[in-house]
Design brief:
The chain is mostly helical and 64 residues long. The protein contains 2 helices and no strands.
């Protein structure tokens, strides 16, 4: 399934049942989220940008 839902400007991490980038309902908050960002280029790009900022904030303290 390819989901082309556009990413939102406001990221909400309030529910594991929805993508925080576009609000699309997820099958689950773990593998369902990964499947969603793999299938949705806009959300994948937003996630990669977010994870880069987290890595920069944490600097050498996190291996993720």
């Amino acid at each position: 399934m390819v989901d082309d839902a556009p990413a939102r400007d406001d990221t909400e991490w309030n529910s594991p049942e929805q993508c925080p980038f576009c609000g699309t309902p997820l099958t689950d908050g773990g593998s369902g989220f990964i499947d969603h960002i793999d299938a949705t280029p806009a959300c994948r790009e937003s996630f990669e940008s977010w994870i880069d900022r987290v890595r920069d904030d944490i600097e050498g303290e996190w291996i993720g």
